[in-house]
Amino acid sequence: MQLEHKDIPFEKKTFPITLVCDNIYFQQNIGSLFRISEAFGIEKIIFLGRNIPLNPRKINKTSRSTHLHVPYSVIVQTKDLIDYLLENNYEIIALEITNASKPLQEINFPPSKKIALVLGSEINGICNEILTISNQTVHINMFGENSSMNVVQAASIALYELTNKR
Predict the structure, then answer these.
(1) Percent helix, strand, coil in the chain (nearest 5)?
(2) Cα 68 to Cα 58: distance, rounded to the nearest angstrom
(3) Sign of the CA dihedral 124, 141, 62, 17?
(4) Structure pTM?
(5) How would you label 62-74 residue by residue, b for 16+ Cβ within 10 Å and e otherwise?
(6) Using the 8-state DSSP alphabet, how is residue 144 labeled?
(7) For residue 10, what pLDDT is reported?
C-alpha cells in the first residue's frame, strides 16, 4: 500500500550543501531544482545571473511549493559569487564533463566542510571562471550517444551521491 505524505518514515535532515546554479533560466528547471533540493535537505540555493525568472506562479508548478521552504539568493556577478564561495571556505564541486573531470562516484570531500555543488546553464554549462576555482570537477558516466542530460536529472544523481556519502 502506498503511504501518504504524513506517514513517510524518513528522518528530516539538512545537509551543509549549497546548490549553485550558474545562469539557469528555464523556469521548469528552477522549480524542479527547488523540489529536489528540499527532498535532499539542501541548505540553500544560489542563483547566479541577471534577471533569473523566479516567478512563484510558474515555478510552483514544478516545485510543488518547495520554493517556500528552501532558502535562496541571487548573485548577479560571477566575481561576487566566487568571492562568496572562497571567503566562506566551501568545497566547490563542479558538475561538468571536462578534460580533467572524474566520475561522480570517485568524489571525496572533507566531512566537516560545506559543499557548493555547481550546476551549469542549460545552454553553456559552467563558466570557466567557476571551473578554475573549483576544488573538484566531476561528471556522471553515461553510456549512450548523448553526452549531457537535463540539469535537474544531473542534480538529482549528484545530490543522491553527496548525501549518501555524508
Answers:
(1) 35, 20, 40
(2) 13
(3) negative
(4) 0.94
(5) bbeebbeebebee
(6) S
(7) 83
- Written as one letter, the residue type at 40 is F
Give every strand in the sheet of 136-139, ordered side by side. Answer: 72-75, 42-48, 15-22, 115-119, 91-95, 136-139, 102-103
Q: Determine contact, residues 71/43, Cβ cutoff 8 Å.
A: yes
Closest CA to 139 of 102, 164, 91: 102
Cα pseudo-dihedral 92, 54, 65, 114, rounded to 10: 10
Query: Measured between alpha carbons, how far is 122 from 29 in angstroms, rounded to an integer?
Result: 9
Say which residue the cell 551521491 belongs to: 161
Residues of the chain short of pLDDT 50, as ranges, are none
Half-sphere exposure of 75 (CA within 13 A, CB side): 16
CA distance 40 to 60: 18
Sign of CA dihedral 28, 33, 36, 39: negative
pLDDT per residue over 115-149, tens digit each?
999 999 989 999 999 999 999 999 999 999 988 89
Residue 46, SS3?
A: strand
